[in-house]
Design goal:
The complex is a heterodimer of chains A (about 400) and B (about 260). Chain A is mainly β and about 400 residues long. Chain A has one helix at about 5-15, and strands at about 20-30, 45-55, 60-75, 80-90, 95-105, 135-145, 150-155, 180-185, 190-200, 205-215, 220-225, 230-235, 240-250, 255-265, 270-280, 290-300, 310-320, 330-335, 340-350, 355-365, 380-390. Chain A has one domain (about 20-390): Porin, CATH 2.40.160. Chain A is built from one helix and 21 strands. Chain A has an 18-stranded antiparallel barrel. In chain A, strands 8-12-11 form a three-stranded mixed beta sheet, with no helix packed on it. In chain A, strand 11 (about 220-225) and strand 12 (about 230-235) form a beta hairpin. Chain A is globular and about 60 Å long. Chain A starts with a helix and ends with a strand. In chain A, about 35% of the residues are buried. Chain B has about 260 residues and is of the alpha+beta class. Helices cover about 15% and strands about 45% of the residues of chain B. In chain B, a hairpin with a 3-residue loop joins strand 12 (about 210) and strand 13. Classes of the chains: A mainly beta (about 400), B alpha+beta (about 260).
Chain lengths: ~400, ~260
């Protein structure tokens, strides 16, 4: 509490003394197949702006970070949105740190999916890969000890997942009406969630063990109506989730395993992802590296799993030129081992001069059966061009 | 026993004079390290100017902190400022006298700390002509040595040795190092690739002494003879004994790095 007063006193000062870094992203998408719904379009333009303000004082022990985000989308009202990605005060002592505010926390090690990662809600309208997250209100205490790092989280307030609107592509059919969300907890979005994580580096091993109790970040869906049109409505359960992540860095290879056990969302279930990542350095006598990733994705709910990744194989190649412009090309595929379904992802990016970055991406859903959780996007193959300016 | 001792005593003067080239090479490296021991910690900024053979330039900017660890390699943290698309990325390295270094990368866009393989040391650092291993903490144990000759370089008396990386994942078969006789500072290093062909030359200039003992080069110029590309690395704002602690080199501090 003693820290709060100096913080408030320092705030006006820090806003004038801090450092700003910003990026603006221009994005164009072309969908190569006819949409499932008449409301959807075959092309889209969008612009996003994010800026980060950072200031530290008290000899670097205290800092504040503020990161607002805004997107405008040509077709989808739901994708035109704003968020505060971060508004965080941090106090770092020698063996502990305290954070309070809105922030982003990442847990885990695998590349294809992030099972263990649970603190933040997914900003799904941003990208169908779910990598973009909404700022989460939290108080976090981190203790660094000989036997590892202990992180304790109090998470007051839940963020609802964003979903593409009726006019947007890359969505379910019918679309999700987020305004009609229902909760298991009578506190609804005001339920206070708790989380605890222990992580440690032991020689070549990185180990993490975590537990979360609170509102599930991924909802189940119920069929309902909106203006007598069918819609899906999210239902957020109260869950307990225990997570384990292990990485062994043995020579050139990174061996990875993530596993979770979740209770409170239907039957208790277990899901896991594991595999390896390796890099061939300086292939063909060049400066380029070739990275190889293989991961197996498992969910013991099998066909009933609301995820398309219940018995799947993820394979990816990442070619890094290591040149001045950081040219990178990534190709990945997720193969469903129970059907012929596959999702292809191709990405290339490079810097243009000092302050611009260009990237090209293609995502393709092939032979998705109607029973697959990813069927809604089976006609949403797209090619995306983004141009980003940093300043 | 007494006979053996007698033999040893008899041979002792002989062995002192008959120091092999390997022994002398090692002795030079050990002396250079001895003179650079005890700095405790330092921080500095690094500016890199990359130039391709058409003369086009691009810039990198980083900040680094390092902590001396007794009886092991240093701990270092590098924070990237430029180019802006990698701003906030940070790399933590625990180097070891023997075995692989431990290395973690912090990716700010995802707030993710990733343990990476330090075997990938022969690759270019930020697209420059410096490989990761060229910038790593230079421990005596990481090479085997052979003294070659004494000669003058730009009028300064030099000790010239060959050193072979112990680690088979190094990109080099051997390096030739020019160290000045007076202060044991490296002035020039020739790097020979896996085909034993001259690949790069590093020239170190603008030496300044800190705390009355520790010499640091202000400019390190790397020229790649095979591609015609070059990188000039400028070190600025050196500060020694700033009071850094082990707790400034943890996974948590990596996330905090700004």
């Amino acid at each position: 509490m003693r820290q709060l007063l100096p913080l408030l006193l320092a705030l006006p000062l820090s806003l004038s003394a801090g450092e700003w870094s910003s990026e603006i992203t221009f994005e164009g998408r072309l969908f190569t197949e006819e949409a499932l719904s008449d409301a959807q379009s075959d092309s889209n333009l969008s612009v996003a702006f994010e800026t980060e303000f950072y200031h530290d004082w008290d000899d670097g022990k205290q800092s504040i970070t503020f990161t607002p985000f805004i997107r405008w989308d040509q077709q989808d009202e739901a994708r035109s949105h704003t968020d505060i990605r971060e508004l965080m005060w941090l106090y770092a002592a020698e063996e502990w740190e305290l954070q309070a505010g809105l922030g982003r926390v990442f847990w885990g090690i695998t590349e294809a999916i992030h099972l263990v990662d649970i603190i933040n809600q997914t900003d799904l309208v941003e990208s169908p890969d779910g990598e973009q997250k909404l700022g989460q209100p939290m108080v976090k205490l981190s203790l660094e000890r000989e036997i590892g790092i202990f992180d304790l989280f109090i998470l007051p307030g839940f963020r609802e997942r964003t979903f593409p609107g009726e006019d947007g592509r890359l969505r379910s059919h019918p679309h999700v009406d987020g305004d009609q969300a229902n909760y298991e907890s009578s506190d609804e979005a005001r339920h206070i969630d708790l989380a605890l994580r222990w992580s440690h580096s032991l020689g070549d091993w990185e180990v993490g063990l975590s537990h979360f109790y609170g509102t599930s970040r991924d909802p189940r869906f119920q069929l309902a109506t909106d203006n007598s049109q069918p819609v899906l409505t999210p239902y957020y359960d109260l869950i307990h989730q225990t997570g384990l992540d292990i990485q062994a860095t043995l020579g050139d290879l990174l061996w990875k395993l993530e596993a979770i056990s979740r209770r409170g969302q239907g039957e208790q279930y277990i899901a896991a992802a594991g595999g390896f990542e390796g890099t061939l350095v300086g292939i063909f006598d060049s400066n380029a590296d070739l990275g190889l990733i293989a991961e197996y994705l498992y969910d013991d709910r099998n066909k009933e799993a609301p995820t398309p990744f219940q018995n799947d194989l993820f394979l990816a190649l990442r070619w890094t030129a290591n040149d001045e412009q950081s040219l990178e090309i990534l190709g990945g595929v997720i193969l469903d081992l129970d059907s012929d379904a596959r999702v292809l992802n191709l990405e290339a990016s490079r810097r243009l001069g000092e302050d611009w970055k260009a990237s090209l991406q293609g995502r393709f859903w092939q032979q998705i059966p109607i029973s697959d959780a990813g069927y809604g996007m089976s006609r949403d193959d797209y090619i995306e061009v983004t141009l980003r300016r940093y300043f | 026993m007494r006979n053996n001792l007698f033999l040893v005593l008899l041979l002792l003067p002989l062995t002192l004079f008959a120091e092999t080239a390997e022994e002398r090479g090692l002795a030079i490296a050990v002396e250079a390290e001895r003179r650079d021991t005890g700095f405790s910690d330092f921080q500095a900024t690094m500016g890199m100017k990359l130039r391709n053979k058409h003369g086009e330039e691009s810039n990198r900017h980083m900040r680094t902190t390092a902590l001396e660890v007794e009886n092991d390699g240093d701990k270092t943290l590098i924070i990237f400022d430029r180019p802006r698309d990698v701003k906030g990325t940070a790399m933590l390295t625990f180097s070891h006298k023997s075995g692989q270094d431990d290395q973690w990368l912090y990716l700010p866009a995802l707030k993710r700390v990733k343990r990476i393989s330090s075997r990938n040391k022969s690759g270019p650092f930020m697209g420059s002509e410096f490989a990761y291993e060229d910038l790593a903490s230079q421990e005596v144990e990481k090479y085997s040595y052979k003294f070659l000759r004494e000669e003058q370089l730009d009028g300064i008396d030099m000790l010239v040795s060959e050193r072979d990386p112990v680690d088979p994942s190094s990109g080099y078969t051997y390096q030739v190092v020019w160290i000045d006789k007076a202060e044991y500072r490296p002035f020039k290093i020739d790097f020979y690739d896996r085909k034993k062909t001259l690949l790069k030359t590093l020239t170190l200039t603008g030496y300044q002494q800190y705390l009355g003992q520790y010499w640091r080069a202000g400019t390190m110029s790397m020229i790649n003879h095979q591609t015609g590309k070059s990188t000039v690395l400028s070190w600025k704002d050196y500060k020694f004994r700033t009071g850094l602690k082990t707790s400034d080199f943890t996974r948590n501090s990596l996330k905090r790095a700004k």
